[in-house]
Amino acid sequence: MALALFAFAGAVTDADLQQLEARLGQQLATLQSQVDLLRRENAELRQGRALLGRDSTRDIMGSGLAGSEGRRLSPATQRTMWHNGFLHRFDVPASSGCGLEADLHTSSEPLMIRRGQDGNLTMQYSTGAAFITNAPVEVTHPSGCATKTLTANAHVEVTGDLMIEGDLMIHSMNADAAGQPANTNLVQLSATPPALSADDVGANNLMGLMLRFAAMSTAGTIKSAKSDTKVVDLNHGDANSPGVMHMSDFHGRPNQYFFWMGPYIISLFDPDCVGTHATNNKAPEQQPTCVLQPYRLLDGGTPLCLTWGDGTAAATTTAGNTCPADPNNAASHDGDFSQCSCLKYRFYLRPCTIGTTNLWQQFKIKSGSEGQIQPMASSENCCVDYDDGQGQVWSNQCNDMDNQKWLYYR
C-alpha cells in the first residue's frame, strides 16, 4: 500500500499542482461571488426590491409578468415593485398624495416599503415617509382559532372566474333594506313613500339593483275607473309634445305599462323609441327593442319617469303652488283655482332623476282616497285627472269623481 502511494505521489508533477490550484482558485472566486450576491439580495429583499442578478420581469417558472419593475405600461407613468409577494402598481408615482420618485428608485437609494406594528405600510426614502397605507390583506383569527376571516382593504378586481363555495354575505344589503320602512297602511300612502337614495339605486349597489329589477317585474296598466277600456298611454309620436301622456284603448304594448318604485312611476317603454314613428310597417311599441332594456335600470341607462309638465322647469325640492312647464298645452287653464293653482297641466315621460329631490317626478296616493294620485311638487289639493272629453291626462282639483280614481292591472 505504501509503495502504491509513493508511486502515485511520484507521478504528480508541478504542472499538475498548478492546474489544481488554479481550478480551486476559480471555484473559490465563484463561491465568494455567490455569497456576495446572496448578501446583496438579502439586503434588497429587506428593502422590498426585486432580486439582484435575476430578471424581475420573469417569475420562478420563467413566465413573463405583465407588470415588471421599470417597464412602462398604460399609463406610461406606471411603475411596479414587488414586496413580500405583492406586486404594487403605482400609476403616477409622483402625483399628489403619492409623493414618490417618478421611477420609484433614485440613483442613490431605492424606495423602501416598511411594515409597521399598526398594520400599515409606509413608502419611504431616507428623507422620510412619502405616504402611508393600510395593509392590503389581513387575516383575523377569532377566539379559539377554529376559523379565520380574510379582509381585503382595497377595491378587488377579479380578472378570472370567481368561485364561492360558502355563503356570500353582503352586509350593506341589510343596511339598505333596513332603510326602507314598511308601509303598515298597505293601501294608502298619506306621506312621502319610502324613496331610494341615489346610492341605493346605483349600479354599484347590489341591493338597489335588485330592488329596481323587482319593481320592474310588477309592471302593469293604469286604468281609469271612468272607462272600461281606457288606460294611461304614452303618445310617443306626438310631434309637438313627444312623450306626452293621454288615455287610449288598451292594447297591451309596453307604452301602456308602468311600475311604481318608491315615489316614481316608471314606464316599460324604452327611451330610444320616444318620438319615433312606424318602421317595417310596425309602430314603435310593436318593436321588440322598444321594450325597456334591462340595462336601463343601471346607472347611465336612464328609464322614463312620469313627470308633471314637460320636464323643462327647474327642479323643485319643496312642495308649493308653483306650476310646471307645459308650453304646448292648448287647453285653457280655467276652473276653480281655490284648491289647486295648477289646473290642466299635462303629464309627460321624461328621463328619471332617481335619488334626487326633484319633486316634478314624484307622486303619492292621496290619503283616504280610492286610488287618487297626487304630484308631490304641489302642496295644494291637486290630483291626476282624466278628461274623458279630450282624452287628456292632466292636473286638476281633487274630487270624488271616477275620472280621478285609478286602478292597476297586470
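the 2nd protein, sequnce then structure:
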Amino acid sequence: MATSSTVKGGDKVRRMMRRLQRQAPQALLRALFEEGLRIFEASQLEVPVDTGRLRGSGLLGVLRPARAIMGGAVVVAYGTAYALRIHENTGADKARGARGAAGRRGEKVRGAQIGKSKYLEDPFKRASVGMFPRVARRTKNLIAERRDVAEPQRQRGKKGKS
C-alpha cells in the first residue's frame, strides 16, 4: 500500500535555511568582533605609556583567509617591535612603579609610567569568562533582528602622545 504526504511551508523553510547559511557566519564574526572590541578597549587602559607609540600601535581587525569557512577571525594586537618584550616583562612592573590603569586612561605622571605587563593577556582572561554564552546570544540576536550584518571595520589605537 503506497502512502503520500504533503509538507506545507517547505519553501519557507528552504528560504530560512538559505538566509541562515548566509547570515550566521557574518553574525558570528560580528559578535566576536564586539568581544574583541571589549578586550581591545580594556587593553588600551592597561598598556604601558611612555611616548604613546605602543598604545598607538594597537589594532583590532578581522582576518579573512582566502578560503574561510566561517568568515574569518578577529585579531587584537600591538604592532611595535618591542610589544612582546614589554608584554612579557612582568619584573618591570615593580621596578617602574607601574599602576593598573583603571580610571587613569594612561595619563603620564611625571617620572612614572602608567600601565603594566600582560596588558593584552589580562583583559583577554577577564573577557573569556562567559564569552561563549555572550557570543552565542549576540549571534542569535543579530540573526533574529533580520538585518544585514555588516562587516566590522578595523579599529586603530588612540593617536597622539599620551
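Helices lie at 10-46, 53-56, 83-88, 92-95, 121-128, 131-144. The first strand starts at residue 58 and ends at 63.
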